[in-house]
Amino acid sequence: MTSAVDAAVGEAVGSAELRGWQMGMVRRLVRRLARTGRFYSRALSEIDETRLLSFLDMELLPFTYPGDLVSNPGDFLCVPSRDVSRVTTVRTSGTTGKPKRMFFTSSDLERTVDFFSAGMKDIAGSGGTAAIMLSSGAPDSVAHLLKRALAKNGVDAEIIGEGLNFREAAEAVNGVDCLIGIPASLIKLCRVGPHLRPSSVLLTADYVPESVVGGIKKLWGCRVFTHYGMTETGFGCAVQCEEGDSHHIRHSDMLVEIVDPVTGRQMQPGSEGEITVTTFAHEAMPLLRYRTGDISTEVCGMCRCKGPYPKLGRVRGRSVNIICTGERGAIRLDELDEIIYSFDGVLGCKVKSGEDVPVHLFVDAVGSLDRAAFERAVKSMIPAGGKGGRRVVFTYGYDAPFSKSEKRAVERVYAS
Question: Higher model confidence: residue 178 or residue 408?
Answer without folding.
Answer: 178
